[in-house]
Structures are given as structure tokens and as C-alpha cells.
Amino acid sequence: MTFDEVGLSEELLKAVTAAGYSEPTPIQAQAIPSVLSMRDVTGIAQTGTGKTAAFVLPMIDRLAQGRSKARMPRSLVIAPTRELAAQVAENFEKYGVNHKLTMALLIGGVSFGDQDKLLMQGVDVLIATPGRLIDQFERGKLLLTGVEMLVIDEADRMLDMGFIPDIEKICKLLPPRRQTLLFSATMPPEIARLAAQFQNDPKRIEVSRPAQTADTITQYKIPLKSNDHKARRTAIRRVIESRDVTNGIVFCNRKSEVDIVAKSLTKHGHDAAPIHGDLPQAYRTQTLDKFRNGELKLLVASDVAARGLDIPAVGHVFNYSPPPNSDDYVHRIGRTGRAGRTGESFTLVCPEDEKLWDAVVKRVQKSVEDFMPEGLAEELEALPSDGGRSSRSRGRRNDRNDRSERSERSDRTEKSAARESSNDKEKKQSRGSKKSRGDSELLPPAPAGPVVGLGDHVPAFLQRPI
Ligand code: AMP
Q1: Is 6 helix (H, G, I), strand (E, B) or coil?
Q2: Which residue stretches of 251-311 are H helix?
Q3: Model confidence over 368-394: pLDDT tens digits?
Q4: Residue 72 C-alpha to ligand 1 middle, in angstroms?
Q5: Statement to judge: residues 160 and 308 lie in one domain
Q6: Within this chain, do residues 303 and 363 fall inside the same structural domain, yes or no?
Q7: Do 223 and 198 share a structural domain?
Q8: Fewer Cβ neighbours under 10 Å: the N or C end of the chain?
């Protein structure tokens, strides 16, 4: 199928040609005609399949007629993270060059004032994370009764991050007569229920998962004898140094590990920077831009921070340990070997990781070769033990401090902060002070690289009552 056949307007076809696309991807070929004919769509697809354009392109065509009113957006896209929301916004800008549509991005870390000004003027497209959207609605800054089209992007990520109640709440604020598009990489029962509740006879479109298309990726396992952080850091360094790495992502399971690994790599002369949800938004954006532009070689990331980010194909993926969920492994290695290019992935596996690793091997249904850079085994033998502070025991301690990947829900934190009365704040401060004393010795080291302001992250010590 060609783009001419999917039913898009001339202006959009021009934008698509300018973007350099010669033909629609399978999800685009199937979704665009259905969206244009006003049908609800459930798209089972993940990032890298072209799913963003599959809803942005027809949405622009549908919105081309009609005008927005103050505080009443005509369409709404909900995305789980700020980066994903920002990415959808970039897509609107790219494909909407020949249209005069207005757009607002409602994400945490951006001042309420600027967002409010835009909303007041009236927008055709509102792209938001759930927390910030509900905030603005509850502040009376927004009316959702004019929404003709709703897109729920990366629904399974929303589920992981605990956003489903927020999505249900938002859906109930929208007019019942609207078009609803839902995209998700997987269809767990909670998402299927959401679709059944808020969609009307949707067309179901499923495109293949990267696990079936990752033949261009060579996967390796680095067997480690012990669960020791120093050994892991040495191993990851030596593996990186043994390959000709142009750009790569080092994935860690915990935010505290992301910080430590990025710091260690930087200390040893590597060009690396961390990205996870506790880092200030400005720093995250800056780091991602650098990585995209080729100014940063190694991105050290958590799964949630990296999920869905449109990062051009990387040559190498390194796993500090296997992820707790084998689907995440597929997402991680799917960052390399895209569009027929070759890529390599390396995973450190110690005896304690074997159970997780077995699940990964079962999931990818491929045999994975062992790899040991020259001299690494001897170097690891010679390492002094880290005093029994195995990654597992340290991980357990850090778990409390790490607040798990779910704390990427910083939008929600902002939301509750905004709602608190001064009384509540005092109560919270005294609670915070107790916690901060307990946590202080567990705080992860400062992130490697420049710290850009405090952003929306207020350190616990600043919240102590006087
Ligand atoms: P997505 O799955 O939306 O994250 O898109 C992944 C990447 O595919 C993005 O960099 C898009 O610019 C690119 N892309 C989207 N549609 C097409 C297409 N029809 N042909 C080639 N690349 C595309």
C-alpha cells in the first residue's frame, strides 16, 4: 500500500514526503483509513512501528475542519511520561507544517502560567500526562466537553505506572460521542477492560513485536561468578571497551544503579550520562537531545525513562542485569538492530540472576552465546570483594530510597503538592523530615553530569520544618 491510498489530504502527503517516508508502515496502513472514517481503533503495537504517525496523521486531517474555543481542546492525547508526550508533540509539529492547528503540551516541569495562556487561547490538540491534565481540570482551567477525539498512548505503561484510575476519570469527563484510539504494546486484562469500557466497536490492529523481528541483533550473556557491584561495573566497562561503540544504552533496573553506573563510567573516561524519572526535567531533555544528536555516546537509563522514547537506532545495548520482566528485555534490545541494521546486546548475568535470565531466554526463543572480553575473568578474580554488599542486598536497601520506577509519576507528586493546604503541607513536612533522616544515609550519589537547577525535584533536606 502507498500513502496515496490511505486517504490522507494533499497537505499531509506533502508533509509525509518531506519527512522522507516512502510507504506507510503496517500499523499506519491499517489504522489511518479507520481513523479517517471515525472508527475507534485498538492498536497493539509498540514504539518503532510508526504508531505515533498512525494516529497523528489522520488526527490532523480530521481537525483541519473546524475551530477551537477557549479552554476547550478539540482532541486529547494522553501519554504516560513527559518525554513521550513531548515526542507526540514533535510529531504534530512535523506532520502539521502545512496546517494551522494549535497545540498545547500539558506536562509536569513546565510552568502552569504558560500552559494556561495557551489553553485560554484555545487549542486544537492537547497532549498531556494524566496527572497534569487532572490538575488543570480541577483548577478549572480546562473544559473537556469539546473533545472529539481521544488517544490513549502506551496504555500498558499507564497500567505499570498506576495511571489507570486517572485514565478512567478523564474518560468520564469527555463527551460520550467521541472517537477513541488506544495504543498498547501488550493487552493485559486491565487494558482490555479499559478498551471495552470506553471504546465503541473498535477495529483491532496488531502488528508484530520486535522479538520476532530482531534477527539482526546478536545477543550475548556475560556470565559473572558473584553478585557484586564492583564486578558488574568492571564487567560493563570492559565489555563496552571491547566493542567499537558509536552509541549505546546501558539499562539498569533501579534508578540508584543508573546514577552509580553513569558516574562510574564517567569516572573511567567514558562519555556517559544518566536518565531516570527523579532527574530534573531540563536535565533529562538536555541529555536526550545530546544523545539524539550524537554528542553523547552512552545513555544510562531505567526502563520507564527509556520506554517509548524515539531514539534513533543505537548500535549497542548493555544490560547491567536482566530486567525483572522479560518483556522489558525485548524493549531494551529492540533499541538496536532497527530497520535491518545490525546491533549487539550484552547482559550481565550472575548466579542470582539465572531465574530472570531463564525467563528472558524463554521469551526470545533464541540461544544466547556467552561472551567474556579478554582478561576480564582474571580481572574479576583479582577484585577485592565489596564486603558482602551484593547488588541484591544493596538493592533491597535502595528499594526504599529508590521509591521504585513508579515514582516516575512525578506529575502526581506535583498534583498532590498543588492541592495541599498549608496545614497539609506542615503535616507532610514533619512526615518528610522523619523520612529524610532515615533515608539520608541511603541517598544515591549525585548524578553524573551537570545539574540543571532543582527543576521540580525538591530534595528531602529542604523540606525539614524549621
Ligand atoms: P514510532 O513507532 O511512532 O515511535 O515511530 C518510530 C520511528 O519511525 C520514528 O522515528 C518515525 O519518524 C519513523 N516513521 C514513522 N512512520 C514511518 C514511515 N512510514 N516510514 C519510515 N519511517 C517512519
Answers
A1: helix
A2: 255-267, 281-292, 303-306
A3: 899 999 999 999 998 876 544 544 444
A4: 30
A5: no
A6: yes
A7: no
A8: C
